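[Discussion] Sanity-checking designs against the backbone

I'm trying to build intuition for which residues belong where. Below is a structure token string of 64 positions. I'd appreciate it if someone posts a full sequence so I can compare it with mine line by line.
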């Protein structure tokens, strides 16, 4: 039973090389949060990246 929610807001500017690892780590954090009856919600805010950060983030989120 979920007792609470944890929201993480992440600003990103040209972070395409790092996003995949970030989402992988967040998936692990989601399991830890769940063990404490918390639902983890992550919002990545693309701040005008020109390196495809948003596309990489979308693919990484689908993969996790």
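Best answer:
Here's mine. Compare freely.
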């Amino acid at each position: 039973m979920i007792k609470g929610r944890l929201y993480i807001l992440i600003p990103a500017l040209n972070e395409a090389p790092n996003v995949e690892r970030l989402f992988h780590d967040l998936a692990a954090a989601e399991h830890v949060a769940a063990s404490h009856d918390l639902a983890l919600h992550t919002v990545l805010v693309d701040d005008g990246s020109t390196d495809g950060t948003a596309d990489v983030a979308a693919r990484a989120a689908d993969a996790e």
